[in-house]
Amino acid sequence: MPAQQKKLIFCIAGVLSFACALGTAAAIGTQLWVRGTILCTTGAVLVNATGPELHKFIGEIQYGLFSGQRVRQCGLGGRPFQFSFFPDLLKIIPASIHVSVILFCTVLIVFALVGAGFFMLNAFGSPYETLHGPVGLYLWSFIACSCGCLIMILFSSEVKIHHLSEKIANFKEGTFTFKTHSEKFANSFWTILVCSLVHFLNALLIRFAGFEFPFSKSKDSGTITGAVDLMY
Which CATH class is domain 3-209? Predict the structure, then answer.
């Protein structure tokens, strides 16, 4: 492939990687990871609410990795409540999983920035050795994509398996009991999915530029090994 086309591909990959780093950083600070509704079962049972009456006992909840808010509805109008994961909810949430999600988000940002830098170096610089060349580009893209997948898996398990929304809804509630009526992942969660797909796309762009995967065998003589194989 001509050098100009390779430069263009590396520039595109670098810009995409940098955009993913910014998107992940923005996602971490929002409360748009999960949105849902919570049902005040205690109040609904007391008045035997059914049909349209049930809406008077359905509140809202949304949260991110650090904070969130809920609106409790128990038949007397909505009452908003702001909460923070650190340190308020540490005793009721799976703290190890939650902290792991935050750490993997940080790693994703770091390696997305590193990948963006090396894509630009390979686009405008001279041939580099090992980690500066195709092997490094595959490595940064693979690590970033893997972190994105781990973030989604861990956070999904925290929400669905450990019933995070219900634990938050019942935080400091002594009289009333709340259950999750509906919940869905919001924009910030899907941003991580998009970033993971972009890093996978970057690996395909490297291959499209004409570089074999690091574990691929050359079709030529197998006697040439070492740094020469990694130069381009």
Answer: mainly alpha
What is the chain's pLDDT, residue by residue, as a tens digit (232 residues)? Answer: 556 777 888 888 889 999 999 999 999 999 999 999 998 888 888 877 777 778 888 899 999 999 999 998 887 777 888 999 988 898 899 999 999 999 999 999 999 999 888 888 877 775 544 455 677 788 888 999 999 999 999 999 999 999 999 999 998 887 888 999 899 999 999 999 999 999 999 888 877 766 655 555 544 444 444 443 443 3
Paired tokens of 114: 């590193």
Q: Where are the domains of the chain?
A: 3-209
Show Cβ contacts of residue 123 under 8 Å, excluding neighbours closer than 6 positions: 6, 7, 10, 11, 14
Nearest to 32 by CA among 68, 60, 58: 68
Distance (Å, whole) CA 213 – CA 130: 13
